[in-house]
């Protein structure tokens, strides 16, 4: 494979990764000129949260119904009324109350690390929470959230009709695993150390995604087949070498894998 | 560019943690009102965190700190730029005495439309039954309405007063929840550009018209009024209010004659739609109680004139409430 083709391949992979990232993120730019982004929740995660909430409501209802059932000792009629109203309030009001009290989260959303947020990044209002939940009546039609699911599928911001009306998004807040820096086998000679302009340029230009991809490649090196490992590190090294001009002593005579290791080390560890 | 990242993060983290503490305090209590000093501090810390995020964004290998700071700036942004927050506690009486009637009047056009659609349905249903008695089988949703009205009246009047004894309350609960579900569905279907709302409201009118004409033709007008007025005078307007909410939503979607974008239009009507939905639900709770505890009792248990008078008083009260309640504060706000 020619260098150009390799670069194109790497470039395509990086571009695809960035493209995919863009598709699932929603960016907000503040008046201060600072941008932050939300990761939009996938329909699968939302469905899982829905199932957890459904199980929560069912479990809560079993307990509540048992307690209300005790009322029938006094009056079966009153118990029947309290049952009907309580189930309605629990099934319809649980999500509204939970999302209001827990800033956009229900138990299901907490478990799946999802959160309802305002699409402009502003604070959620009660009206927003109430409306997005009231509109479940139409999102749930004709069965199994078909209308809501289809709306979310075709929406740029993955919004079901309730979200669209209320101006809300459901975002995913994953916990970022802290890189296990012990896998880097530091302490060895690093050809980049001492070339401060190169290190600075790398830190400035390498995206967090690229840095993490390189670190992951090193952390998992033993799981790759030999040929695949050589190819992978050759592509990564080629990509990082292309970022900034380097003095010969920084890049020559260093294997591709060691070069990638050096890059990751200066990105992650040099500041320590 | 940051020259010494470690030093930068170590120094700034103290400020970030201060900001986080204020944000956590706000998150823990929805109605917590910041003091002037705290508000100033929040804004200062938020501005600083924003600047730090902008600087940190130039670095590749600090994803954890960056994500942490992004989250913090996002939360800070929501608080600082969130506009008027709901810092005052919800006051049920103010909502009932002012917010609901004022909202109703503000969206009167949608209610009128809802009423017109119902009336067209009433005429359609009435004419259908007047000209073809077999239409009842298609139109009527409940089996007990399919028979001869006079036979039903005779049966009801001869029935034991205690026919609903032991299940009045549970019947009332079932009515409340069922009617509220239907009304909220009618409101929600505003998101179908109003088509779904239109269908539900029209069909409701068709049933009403069919039942009314059926009983009128059978000469059972007094029974009809005594049976329907006590609860219907609240229940039917409640469904119309649900339709009103749906049409307000549909109006925002269609955006005819409005310069705002769709998201802006929906945002503008959102509080009113929610208020109308909850208002309809409250009305249906009352209607459910009346239907179970009063409407199902006929002469000789309760004289019809008592039931009709009760319905008329309720109707007058509702009319006054929707037209006049909260006028004083409305005028004051308009002047301001």
From TrEMBL, chain B:
The keyword tRNA processing does not apply. The keyword Membrane applies. Keywords: Membrane, Transmembrane, Transmembrane helix. Pfam families: SpoIIM. The chain crosses the membrane at residues 110-131, 182-203, 210-230, 236-254, 266-289, 301-322. PANTHER family: SLR1478 PROTEIN. This is Stage II sporulation protein M. It comes from Nibricoccus aquaticus. The lineage of its organism: Bacteria, Pseudomonadati, Verrucomicrobiota, Opitutia, Opitutales.
């Amino acid at each position: 494979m020619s260098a150009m083709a390799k670069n194109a391949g790497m470039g395509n992979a990086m571009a695809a990764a960035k493209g995919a990232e863009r598709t699932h993120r929603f960016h907000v730019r503040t008046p201060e000129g600072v941008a932050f982004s939300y990761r939009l929740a996938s329909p699968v995660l939302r469905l899982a949260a829905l199932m957890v909430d459904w199980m929560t409501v069912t479990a809560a209802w079993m307990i509540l119904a048992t307690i209300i059932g005790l009322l029938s000792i006094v009056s079966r009629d009153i118990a029947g009324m309290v049952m009907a109203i309580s189930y309605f309030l629990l099934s319809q009001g649980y999500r509204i109350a939970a999302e209001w009290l827990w800033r956009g989260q229900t138990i299901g959303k907490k478990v799946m690390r999802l959160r309802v947020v305002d699409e402009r990044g502003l604070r959620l209002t009660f009206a927003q929470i109430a409306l997005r939940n009231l509109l479940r009546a139409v999102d749930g039609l004709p069965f199994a959230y078909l209308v809501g699911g289809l709306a979310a599928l075709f929406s740029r911001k993955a919004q079901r009709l309730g979200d669209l009306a209320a101006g809300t998004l459901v975002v995913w807040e994953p916990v970022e695993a802290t890189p296990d820096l012990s896998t880097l086998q530091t302490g060895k000679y690093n050809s980049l150390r001492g070339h401060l302009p190169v290190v600075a340029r790398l830190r400035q230009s390498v995206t967090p995604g690229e840095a993490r991809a390189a670190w992951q490649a090193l952390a998992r090196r033993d799981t790759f087949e030999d040929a695949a490992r050589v190819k992978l590190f050759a592509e990564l090294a080629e990509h990082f070498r292309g970022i900034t001009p380097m003095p010969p002593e920084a890049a020559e005579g260093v294997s591709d894998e060691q070069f990638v290791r050096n890059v990751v080390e200066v990105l992650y560890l040099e500041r320590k | 560019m940051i020259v010494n990242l470690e030093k930068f993060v170590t120094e700034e983290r103290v400020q970030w943690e201060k900001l986080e503490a204020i944000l956590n305090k706000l998150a823990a209590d929805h109605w917590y009102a910041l003091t002037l000093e705290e508000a100033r501090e929040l804004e200062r810390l938020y501005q600083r965190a924003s600047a730090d995020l902008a600087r940190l964004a130039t670095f590749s290998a600090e994803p954890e700190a960056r994500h942490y700071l992004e989250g913090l700036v996002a939360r800070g942004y929501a608080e600082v730029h969130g506009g008027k927050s709901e810092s005052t506690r919800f006051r049920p009486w103010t909502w009932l005495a002012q917010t609901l009637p004022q909202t109703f009047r503000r969206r009167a056009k949608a209610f009128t439309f809802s009423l017109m659609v119902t009336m067209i349905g009433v005429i359609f249903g009435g004419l259908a039954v007047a000209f073809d008695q077999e239409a009842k089988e298609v139109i009527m949703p409940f089996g007990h309405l399919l028979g001869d009205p006079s036979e039903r009246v005779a049966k009801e009047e001869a029935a034991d007063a205690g026919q609903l004894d032991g299940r009045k309350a549970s019947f009332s609960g079932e009515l409340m929840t069922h009617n509220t579900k239907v009304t909220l569905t009618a409101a929600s279907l505003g998101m179908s550009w109003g088509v779904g709302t239109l269908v539900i409201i029209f069909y409701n009118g068709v049933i009403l018209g069919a039942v009314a004409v059926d009983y009128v033709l059978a000469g059972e007008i007094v029974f009809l009024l005594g049976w329907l007025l006590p609860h219907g005078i609240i229940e039917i307007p409640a469904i119309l209010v649900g339709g009103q909410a749906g049409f307000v939503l549909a109006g925002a979607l269609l955006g005819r004659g409005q310069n705002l974008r769709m998201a802006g239009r929906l945002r503008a009507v959102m509080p009113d739609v929610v208020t109308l939905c909850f208002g309809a639900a409250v009305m249906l709770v009352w209607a459910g109680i009346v239907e179970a505890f009063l409407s199902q009792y006929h002469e000789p248990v309760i004289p019809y004139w008592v039931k009709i008078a009760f319905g008329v008083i309720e109707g007058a009260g509702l009319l006054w409430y929707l037209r006049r309640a909260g006028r004083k504060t409305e005028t004051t706000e308009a002047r301001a």
